[in-house]
Design brief:
This protein has helices spanning 2-10, 29-33, 37-42, 44-57, 75-78, 101-104, 118-134, 147-155, 157-166, 168-190, 211-228, 246-249, 265-272, 293-307, 327-343; strands spanning 20-23, 61-64, 83-85, 93-95, 141-145, 198-202, 233-238, 256-259, 277-282, 313-317. The protein contains 15 helices and ten strands. Helices cover 47% and strands 13% of the residues. The chain is α/β, with parallel strands linked by helices. A six-stranded parallel β-sheet has the order 5-6-7-8-9-10, sandwiched between helices. The protein has one domain: Alpha-Beta Barrel (TIM Barrel), CATH 3.20.20.210. A hairpin with a 7-residue loop joins β3 and β4.
């Protein structure tokens, strides 16, 4: 029922109960389960048990994407040859080998079936899907990092942002190759699933560009990706405060927007209108990790009062579930949605 409610809200409807959707991956899950992060990646049985355990521990939450096979942010940039570092208590870190924009301007798209960690992800998805289908379950969504984020891992954030201002033609060529890779990567993942229903794109770096640079340089690539998967549920995550881009992002053709708690949800709803479902926006760190259950409930009720009437609302943190988020604070978020919906 939770997933069906999530889809109703994503379609801008007003279900009987506001769904709670939470983005979870390797920053939070290994610590939540008390396992070495490297073992989370290396031991498929433990990975499976940890992700499946969420369904019984938090039965009223929608896990986005759910059973996410990922190596932090390393999967896509690994296909282009970046340097990766693995750690026991956090996701892999990624560092560029070449920081020269001109070098990357001639890059060719990566092949998700052969390059970097992507073929391993595809194989793990296929194995997990087979196992889940045998238990009457399945994987509904797949994910990719967005073009600006991936480009930043190839050359570094500063060279990329400097190039946006001084050499947009070269940056556009990089983004073209990366976008082609992303589309192929999402298709490759979807092809491993029996009944895929959605995709999620994550790109915080978009929020760092000006409105002009977004419209001229970034928007065409985001739009190309989301247009490619028209008909599927499309979630866009960007928790960099980007009030100046909200109107433009509305035209990128995604269905659900997960955004920063630093932008008030009422303001986001006013700007984006009833065209995009909103997924947010309780502060993930100051409240989700450091706050009490009562703090979470208070913030959640405030968000619901501002954005739930009229539909198109998914209660969540303003970003992914942060490392160290206690289970009782997730319980409080879910209870807040129950209580608010029961009163309406």
């Amino acid at each position: 029922m939770s997933w069906e409610t999530f889809k109703q809200a994503a379609a801008l409807q007003e279900p009987q109960e506001v769904p709670v959707g939470l983005i979870v991956d390797s920053p939070w899950l290994p610590g939540h389960a008390g396992i070495d992060t490297r073992d989370y990646f290396l031991l498929p049985d433990r990975w499976f048990e940890i992700n499946k355990g969420l369904l019984s521990r938090f039965p009223d939450a929608v896990w986005v994407p759910g059973f996410w096979v990922e190596y932090g942010m390393a999967a896509e940039p690994s296909g282009f040859g970046v340097r990766m570092h693995f750690h026991d208590n956090r996701p892999p870190s990624v560092a560029p080998v070449v920081t020269d924009l001109d070098f990357w301007a001639d890059v060719k798209p990566a092949n998700p079936h052969e390059d970097g960690l992507m073929p391993l992800v595809l194989r793990l998805y296929a194995l997990a899907e087979e196992r889940l289908q045998a238990e009457g379950l399945g994987i509904r969504m797949v994910c990719a990092r967005g073009p600006m984020t991936i480009a930043s891992w190839l050359m570094g954030v500063m060279p990329l942002m400097e190039g946006v201002a001084t050499n947009p033609q070269a940056v556009s060529r990089v983004l073209e190759a990366v976008t082609t890779t992303i589309i192929g990567w999402l298709h490759a993942q979807l092809d491993t699933l029996r009944s895929p229903e959605g995709i999620m794109l994550l790109d915080d770096l978009v929020g760092m560009v000006s409105k002009r640079h977004y419209e001229n340089l970034v928007h065409p690539h985001l739009r190309r990706i989301f247009d490619e998967f028209d008909g599927l549920l499309r979630v866009y995550h960007n928790d960099t405060p980007c009030r100046h881009l909200l109107a433009g992002l509305t035209e990128a053709n995604f269905d659900v927007f997960n955004f920063s708690h630093e932008v008030d949800i009422a303001e986001v709803k006013a700007i984006m209108g009833h065209r995009v479902a909103l997924m947010g926006n309780v502060p993930p760190l100051d409240v989700g990790v450091r706050g009490t259950a009562d703090d979470v409930a208070q913030w959640a009720h405030s968000c619901l009062e501002k954005a739930a009437p009229g539909g198109g609302m998914i209660l969540s943190f303003g970003g992914g579930v942060s490392p160290g988020t206690p289970a009782e604070n997730i319980d409080a978020l879910i209870k807040a949605a129950h209580d608010w919906s029961a009163q309406c």
